[in-house]
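Q: Second attempt. The first request was missing the SMILES, so the protein and flavin-adenine dinucleotide are both included now.
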Amino acid sequence: MQILKDIEAIVGTKGILTGNDVANRKAGIWIDEGIKAKAIVRPKNTEELSKVLKICNEKKQPVVPHGGLTGLAEGAITLEGQIAISTERLNEIETIDTVGRTITLGAGVQLEKAQNKAEENNLMLAVDLGARGSCTIGGNISTNAGGNMVVKYGMTRDSVLGLEAVLADGRIVTSLNEMLKNNSGYDLKQLFIGTEGTLGFVTRAVLRLREKPKSTNTALLAVNSFTQVTQFLKHIDRGLGGNLSAFEVMWEDFYKQVTTEPALNSPPLSQGFPYYVLVESTGSNQQKDSEHFEELLEEALNLEIIEDAVVSKSDSDRSNLWAIRDDVEQHYQDGPVKMFDVSMPILSMEKYITDVHEKFSENWETYKCVVFGHLADGNLHVVSGVGSDDDESIRKMESCIYDPLKSIGGAVSAEHGIGLEKKDYLGISRTEIEIDIMRTLKKSLDPNNILNPGKVFD
Ligand SMILES: Cc1cc2nc3c(=O)[nH]c(=O)nc-3n(C[C@H](O)[C@H](O)[C@H](O)COP(=O)(O)OP(=O)(O)OC[C@H]3O[C@@H](n4cnc5c(N)ncnc54)[C@H](O)[C@@H]3O)c2cc1C
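A: Got both inputs this time. The predicted holo structure:
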């Protein structure tokens, strides 16, 4: 095929995979099928990628950016006639500035590698998620990933100071700003953050680092009502004065399953409370911060906002508490399930979950619908199962989860993106005019629709 020969002339034989080398690679971390694509192209620098995209644009050849393939919205799914372009060779950490607290690196660097580099320099990259060992900085930027510390440090967007991206026609936008403040005209990097590779291909980035916290305090709490969960959120956030770094909530049935055999974790607090909160703070003095953290929990117990608490006393206690929250796979034991990622105002959550249960019970006699999430960020995950994962069941579940979001101003994607999976539902969360502006941007930056076509919207 001529286009593959032209691309090989740019990237060399090491830079292009075809045939079984493509099919033998899994299409995603939780997808058993192999990648379907004409080829996987692996440029080793921005200039190579620029030349490749120029050719693809001239030939109207669709391409799909590939990072670590851990995305959960089918954003990196590739069709047979398409070409996947992987960032796996754009994987260098270029510089770290310990005074300005920035790291400059290639889009293909794994998140964990960037975190470790920051840590070696007594700094912290405030982006963290379960897929840290496989996902890439380019993927994190393109999905505007959320994760575990959003309540304190914001989403990936809040850690991106600058970036470099290649446009569909091969032009390179180098916008590697290192400052916190830069109002010199439009903030163009935002075009490439959270746009899932549809407006440009991210090749390099400058990320903001923070001073590494010197203390961490973690506790698991049992709470009797949703109102008390919200009272506790305000109590602890006010009391910690900006140091609240995680506020994760598990509904009763989520907690029961992850603390009952065959799950490996035993329950640190007895089962049967309606809500469990995993709360964490970071600060600067372990002894003083621990005392203050425990005082705040004691106050909450005395005020009867919380019913019971277990406080971590060591790193292994902390990992054990997080292991409960992270053991989502336990919910995959009883047949096929689908995990939903939605967001809404915190005050709408209780009624929303009641409405979702009502809708499920109207459709199925028995079903699974367990809830947990980064509650302080307005983000809930719902693991749902109805005994079958055929297309009709999935559609019906999607309608039960997404339709009630419209009236409460909720979002069909909190942190995973839209990809292919949610594009039919984008209109629930975005107005026609908003989607029209998205299309205008797409047409002006990628008139031939070659960059990740069909993702986010048609
Ligand atoms: C166990 C597990 C836990 C997770 N936890 C979280 C979580 O807490 N929060 C969260 O937000 N997500 C989470 N995720 C989802 C996923 O890890 C994130 O979406 C992540 O940011 C994807 O990065 P990636 O490198 O794997 O991207 P990929 O899956 O390869 O791609 C994702 C999207 O970005 C595009 N893309 C990739 N690289 C580039 C680039 N350089 N330029 C332009 N476009 C690009 C792709 O085309 C695709 O549309 C989790 C996933 C797993 C498996």
